[in-house]
């Protein structure tokens, strides 16, 4: 490998993608190496998808600062990058005197952090905001919101790509050689680079070790979720949380931008950073626990479950630390090391990325990229538009008149555009998350065959080459008969 | 907005039979809307035989059964649209359809819901574990194989002894996959006895009753499932877990009437059938909106779907011509041992056919219909099982004009 990059970013989660976009404002040859087959496959996409207000973190921490900053810029970002974001607010619901005391402390902390739009509200106001909730009072955070974490990350990555960043999926970094710059080793070749950014999420400890910055203890905190069908979204205009403890936000119910509801997460430490199975007991516990806040969780409305793992940097006593964002000039110059980027990383991604670039610019002058374009357009959706708009879309492109996924009203036009995505992702789940096809009540029962066939035809691949999500996740073993 | 006398949503067995019957009754201004590119519905992928014994007196494959109706539709030049996805239905019987030619809107005197059913997915079953590729509902696997010429499995385990699951056990075996076993949560099989013999026993595929999948393994393709025995409350018994290495899990654990559209329109649904609450004319809570076939309640045999749709169409034709139905105010309730009943409301002034399913396995029992303590109908049965739909003809002369009917097993 002779190509030399200015910067190689390890990890295409929300942080790596945000860093890539911020760096694409400059004249730099940048690559992103991702071990999975798509962006946002781990922590970034497996969470509550809440844009946090910034009141839950200790004053003076990076978590507090970048969360508040990220919250303030989300509206603007969603306009530039065309991803679903809803500033719907959220409530932390309490019942007891101890709850009230904790909420007052949270309010104070929020004020110190600069979190805006916080107020204590009584039962009457609470029920005006969320009629179906159970609670005596609440703290209302007006500026909290929800977004689609996958489409947010895709938007950041596609915008970076449009501005010159190269993406390499299925490229896991297996080793780093330091010398004149860095050589990153992968099973598919070496990458020479002057700068490295460790945005490896759950792999941050491993990459940090490879850079020679040893001693970080990173633990996984696993949370399980249940997803409820779209009917339920009407009963939940904003996320409803219990009163938090110091370290844990509690099991909450959260609407998604598409009108589903997620219930979770619990929190359990784990050593296994790759096991996403959801145990039966957890599902029952989640439903039972959240029902105390919001009594509308019925078994027949559960369409799916999932889990996510947060990488938490802890000290020797197990106490959770702040985000670590550093350049160790002594050990690993020109390497930005991000450790323990957990919640509120989704909210804080862009301010974190800007901070990363600031740290780099303190050490090197970057020439601006004059052709940088901050705007990016997503796939034009058919569902949710007026019939007149739909008519116009079909006239423009008849593929909009072919509904492939009936549950979510997703058309052939959207699916084709997703299959032809700029990052070159070709998995079934990549198409699913880009369009919402296969996410509805029937869970792909009626449409997956059509989508699989479109993938074969568009990409010119054989049935056994179609991949579901991760490497090795074949969907079909082949054809029954040769086709004449 | 185009006006029609009747619009039929769905071109599967129910929709086709309803259309033909309406035509026969002289209703000419009608239209069938089908979302797929072909008429026939799920029958198109059911290439096994056993269809039509009741209706045609011989065993046909699914496509043959459907074709018998499609031929008549074509011969009579009955209008239909394929590639037409109905995305909106209102209380005023206005229908919005998406097609490649644009958005079309219809207003119909009578709307006939014939959308069929969907399968219970993994999420709906709430099976714990990882989320690898290789978990398919039986119908999806069937579509891959029979419509798309694609093979979804090498080593398979099947959860649920529904008919499609058993049929797929045989189909997969015939195409070279290995089916290790079929596991059924209930203490009795949920599919028809003939399928247990023809699809499992004939191929030496074991069926384990009172067993369920308690965990799914694999982060890429499925690598195995954990199966456990369940107790009388259908809860896994600790210590009975056993792992089966396989690359595919086929789910055949129930069908649910597909009523997304009906619910959006405000049609009142029955929590037992998951279909519309209907009267003896198969009319739903919205006047002029009728439902029959698997969208109303899941049937065991397609022959009954066709007959039900024809019965619907006879009454719908009268409705279109302006007939005034006697109000259906007498309710029918599913009592002891009964899973569900259709219809749920009657006038008590004309004969009607009651369709029902029992909850459990019964031998030498009697299905009894009572009104105010009086038995108004009863049917003696050597054997009654949940897998088989039971039908009874009830005579109006036996009924009082008021007072709820209760159906139970004795």
Helix and strand composition category of chain B: alpha/beta
What is the second-level CATH architecture of one domain in chain A? 2-Layer Sandwich
The level of helicity of chain A is: 25-40%
Stretches with pLDDT under 50, minimum 5 residues of chain A? none
Mean of all residue-level pLDDT scores of chain A: 95
Distance between the termini of chain B: 53 Å
Mean pLDDT of chain B: 96
E-strand count of chain B? 26
Query: What general form of chain B does the structure show?
Result: globular
**CATH 4th-level superfamily of the largest domain in chain B:** FAD/NAD(P)-binding domain
Largest interface: A-B, 59 and 50 residues
* CATH topology call of one domain in chain A: D-Amino Acid Oxidase, Chain A, domain 2
What form of chain A results from the Cα inertia axes? globular
Helix fraction of chain B by DSSP (H/I, runs of at least 4): 10-25%
Main sheet characteristics of chain A: 8 strands, mixed
Please identify the top-level CATH class of one domain in chain A: Alpha Beta
Low-confidence stretches of chain B: none
Strand content of chain B: 25-35%
Rg calculated over all Cα atoms of chain B: 22 Å
CATH architecture of the largest domain in chain B: 3-Layer(bba) Sandwich
Proportion of residues in extended strands of chain A: 15-25%
Question: Would you mind describing this structure in some detail?
Answer:
- The complex is a heterodimer of chains A (484) and B (410).
- Chain A is of the alpha+beta class.
- In chain A, 29% of the residues lie in helices and 24% in strands.
- Among the domains of chain A are: 86-146 and 218-309, D-Amino Acid Oxidase, Chain A, domain 2; 387-465, Arc Repressor Mutant, subunit A (Orthogonal Bundle).
- Chain A has 12 helices and 23 strands.
- The longest helix of chain A has 20 residues, at 62-81.
- Chain A starts with a strand and ends in a 5-residue tail after the last strand.
- Chain B is an alpha/beta fold.
- Chain B has 3 domains: 1-119 and 254-325, FAD/NAD(P)-binding domain (3-Layer(bba) Sandwich); 121-253, FAD/NAD(P)-binding domain; 327-410, Immunoglobulin-like (Sandwich).
- In chain B, the strands form 6 sheets. In chain B, strands 1, 2, 3, 4, 5, 6 and 18 form a 7-stranded mixed β-sheet that branches. A 5-stranded parallel β-sheet of chain B has the order 8-16-10-11-12.
- The chains are: A alpha+beta (484), B alpha/beta (410).
- Chains A and B meet through helix 7, strand 18, helix 9, helix 12 and strand 23 of A and strand 5, strand 6, helix 3, helix 4 and strand 9 of B.
């Amino acid at each position: 490998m002779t190509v030399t990059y200015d910067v190689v970013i390890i990890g295409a989660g929300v942080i790596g993608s945000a860093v890539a976009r911020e760096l694409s404002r400059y004249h730099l040859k940048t690559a992103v190496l991702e071990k999975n087959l798509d962006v946002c496959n781990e922590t970034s996409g497996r969470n509550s998808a809440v844009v946090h207000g910034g009141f839950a973190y200790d004053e003076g921490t990076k978590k507090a600062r970048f969360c508040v900053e990220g919250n303030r810029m989300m509206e603007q970002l969603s306009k530039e990058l065309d991803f679903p974001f809803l500033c719907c607010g959220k409530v932390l619901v309490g019942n007891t005197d101890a709850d009230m005391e904790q909420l007052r402390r949270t309010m104070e902390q929020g004020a110190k952090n600069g979190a805006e739009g916080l107020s204590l509200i009584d039962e009457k106001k609470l029920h005006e905001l969320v009629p179906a909730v159970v609670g005596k009072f609440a703290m209302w955070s007006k500026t909290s919101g929800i977004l689609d974490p996958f489409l947010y990350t895709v938007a950041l990555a596609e915008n970076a790509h449009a501005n010159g960043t190269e993406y390499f999926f299925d490229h896991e970094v297996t080793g780093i050689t330091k010398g004149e710059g860095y050589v990153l080793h992968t099973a598919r070749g070496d990458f020479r680079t002057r700068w490295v950014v460790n945005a490896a999420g759950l792999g941050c400890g491993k990459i940090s070790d490879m850079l020679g910055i040893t001693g970080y203890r990173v633990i996984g905190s696993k949370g399980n979720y249940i997803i409820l069908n779209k009917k339920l979204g009407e009963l939940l205009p904003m996320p409803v949380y219990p009163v938090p403890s110091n370290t844990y936000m509690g099991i909450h119910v959260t609407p998604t931008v598409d009108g589903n509801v997620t219930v979770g997460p619990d929190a359990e430490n784990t050593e296994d950073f790759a096991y996403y199975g959801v145990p039966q007991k957890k599902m029952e516990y989640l439903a039972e626990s959240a029902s105390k806040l919001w009594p509308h969780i019925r078994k027949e409305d559960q369409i799916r479950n999932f889990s996510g793992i947060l990488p938490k940097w802890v000290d020797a006593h197990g106490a959770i630390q702040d985000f670590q964002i550093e350049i160790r000039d002594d050990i690993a110059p020109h390497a930005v090391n991000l450790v323990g980027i957990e919640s509120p990383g989704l909210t804080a991604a862009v301010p974190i990325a800007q901070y990363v670039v600031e740290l780099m610019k303190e050490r090197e002058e970057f020439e601006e990229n004059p052709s940088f374009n901050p705007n990016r357009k997503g796939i034009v959706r058919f569902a949710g538009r007026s019939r007149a708009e739909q008519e116009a879309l079909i006239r423009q492109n008849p593929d909009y008149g072919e509904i492939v996924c009936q549950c979510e009203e997703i058309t052939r036009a959207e699916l084709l555009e997703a299959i032809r995505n700029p990052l070159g992702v070709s998995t079934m789940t990549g198409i699913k998350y880009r369009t919402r096809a296969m996410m509805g009540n029937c869970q792909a029962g009626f449409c997956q065959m059509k989508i699989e066939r479109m993938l074969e035809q568009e990409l010119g691949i054989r049935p056994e080459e179609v991949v579901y999500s991760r490497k090795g996740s074949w969907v079909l073993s082949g054809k029954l008969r040769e086709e004449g | 907005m185009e006006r029609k006398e009747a619009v039929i949503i769905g071109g599967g067995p129910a929709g086709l039979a309803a259309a033909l019957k309406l035509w026969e009754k002289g209703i000419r201004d009608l239209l069938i809307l089908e979302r797929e590119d072909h008429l026939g519905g799920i029958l198109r992928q059911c290439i096994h035989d056993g269809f039509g014994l009741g209706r045609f007196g011989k065993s046909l494959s699914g496509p043959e059964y459907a074709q018998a109706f499609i031929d008549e539709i074509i011969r009579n030049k009955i209008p239909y649209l394929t590639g037409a996805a109905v995305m909106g239905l209102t209380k005023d019987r206005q229908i919005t359809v998406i097609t490649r030619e644009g958005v079309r809107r219809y207003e119909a005197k009578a709307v006939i819901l014939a959308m069929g059913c969907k399968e219970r997915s993994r999420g709906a079953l709430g099976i714990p574990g990882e989320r690898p590729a290789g978990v398919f509902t039986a119908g999806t696997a069937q579509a891959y194989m029979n419509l798309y010429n694609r093979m979804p499995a090498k080593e398979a385990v099947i959860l649920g002894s529904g008919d499609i699951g058993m049929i797929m056990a045989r189909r997969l075996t015939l195409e070279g996959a290995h089916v290790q076993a079929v596991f059924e949560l209930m203490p009795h099989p949920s599919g028809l006895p003939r399928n247990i013999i023809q699809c499992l026993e004939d191929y030496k595929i074991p069926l384990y009753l009172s067993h369920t999948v308690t965990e799914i393994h694999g982060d890429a393709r499925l690598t195995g499932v954990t199966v456990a025995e369940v107790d009388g409350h259908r809860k896994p018994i600790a210590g009975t877990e056993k792992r089966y290495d396989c690359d595919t899990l086929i789910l055949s654990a129930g069908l649910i009437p597909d009523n997304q559209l009906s619910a959006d329109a405000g049609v009142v649904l029955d929590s037992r059938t998951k279909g519309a609450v209907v009267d003896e004319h198969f009319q739903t809570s919205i006047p002029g909106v009728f439902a029959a076939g698997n969208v109303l309640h899941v049937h065991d045999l397609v022959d009954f779907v066709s007959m039900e749709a024809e019965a619907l169409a006879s009454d719908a034709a009268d409705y279109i011509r302006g007939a005034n139905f006697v109000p259906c105010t007498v309710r029918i309730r599913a009592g002891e041992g009964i899973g569900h009943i259709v219809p749920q409301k009657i006038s008590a002034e004309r004969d009607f056919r009651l369709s029902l399913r029992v909850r459990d396995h019964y031998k030498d029992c009697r299905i009894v219909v009572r009104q105010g303590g009086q038995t108004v109908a009863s049917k003696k049965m050597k054997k009654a099982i949940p897998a088989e739909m039971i039908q009874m003809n009830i005579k109006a002369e036996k009924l009082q004009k008021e007072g709820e009917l209760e159906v139970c097993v004795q």
